[in-house]
Amino acid sequence: MNIILFGAPGAGKGTQSALLVERKGMRQISTGDIFRAHIKQETRLGSEAKTFMDAGQLVPDSIVVGMVEDVLKDLGGQNFILDGFPRTVPQAEALEMMLLNNGLKIGKALFLEVPMAVLIARLAGRRVCTNCGATYHVLVKPPASPGVCDLCGSAVEQRQDDKEDVVLTRQTAYATSTEPLKEYFAQKGQFVTVSGVGETEEIYNRLSAHL
Ligand code: AMP
């Protein structure tokens, strides 16, 4: 089954997607990761997206939709997780067209529900490997050697958009633009709420029960 995984910044979409990739062989399509890869490679798309991302704002729909379309055309039958897309109702409408054009279907839109205080604490402590993207948390899951990735030995840093002032802008963008998707997916009969609070394994078990 193909799924949409959505929730506020810090809800754990990336962590849970990584587990679904590892254990269920699904393909993760994370628009945030694709943008970060473009920024690293200094492409034109990367430089267009960076200004918005650093400010905690959503990248304009036209840019995101074109980027996702290229990925969907090239899936080769693998089940996929849309992680961080769609994030607005116009993106969800564009997705419907893209799915239709490519003979694809979404089974469920799984919403990871996490209270705001938990989201803020997660993002404030989150650190990410600058090379392989592995995620850590200063209190809950620090790397064995401070500032060094356990997996690849590269530098572990705070994302620019996890800094406090930017996090607030991201949460506002989420509340304004992404929350309305709950109603959108509910009307399509695809909406499922899953609690995103607790241990990673518990959350994974709750999520995978819906697949
Ligand atoms: P994420 O890694 O999913 O938290 O995304 C990081 C940032 O990338 C977001 O704050 C946005 O600036 C941008 N971004 C990722 N996905 C989207 C999307 N579907 N629509 C607009 N902007 C996006």
Protein model, in words:
The protein has 211 residues and is of the alpha/beta class. It has a domain at 3-114 and 176-208: 3-Layer(aba) Sandwich (Rossmann fold), CATH 3.40.50. Helix content is 48%, strand content 15%. It has nine helices and eight strands. Strands 2-3-1-4-8 form a five-stranded parallel sheet, with helices on both faces. The protein has a three-stranded antiparallel sheet with strand order 6-5-7. A hairpin with a 5-residue loop joins strand 5 and strand 6. The longest helix has 15 residues, at 164-178. The chain is globular. Bound molecules: adenosine monophosphate (AMP). Adenosine monophosphate (AMP) is lined by residues 9, 31-32, 35, 52-53, 56-59, 64, 84-85, 87, 91, 161, 170. Adenosine monophosphate binds next to helix 2 and helix 3.
Furnish the topology, listing elements before pairings.
Layout: E1 3-6, H1 13-24, E2 27-30, H2 31-40, H3 44-55, H4 61-72, E3 80-83, H5 89-101, E4 108-113, H6 116-125, E5 126-129, E6 135-137, E7 156-157, H7 164-178, H8 180-187, E8 191-195, H9 200-208
Parallel strand pairs: 1-3, 1-4, 2-3, 4-8
Antiparallel strand pairs: 5-6, 5-7
Using the CA coordinates, give the radius of gyration: 16 Å
Shape: globular
CATH superfamily of the domain at 3-114 and 176-208, called what?
Answer: P-loop containing nucleotide triphosphate hydrolases
Report the portion of residues in β strands: 15-25%
Strand order of the largest sheet: 2-3-1-4-8
End-to-end separation in angstroms reads 7 Å
Overall pLDDT metric: 95
Order of SSEs: EHEHHHEHEHEEEHHEH
Please write the CATH class name of the domain at 3-114 and 176-208: Alpha Beta
Number of strands: 8
Q: Any guess at the CATH architecture of the domain at 3-114 and 176-208? A: 3-Layer(aba) Sandwich
Unreliably modeled segments = none
CATH topology of the domain at 3-114 and 176-208: Rossmann fold
Number of helices: 9
What ligands does this structure carry? Answer: adenosine monophosphate
Sheet with the most strands, sense and barrel status = 5 strands, parallel
Secondary structure category: alpha/beta
Task: Determine the fraction of residues in helical runs and give it as a percent range.
Answer: 40-55%
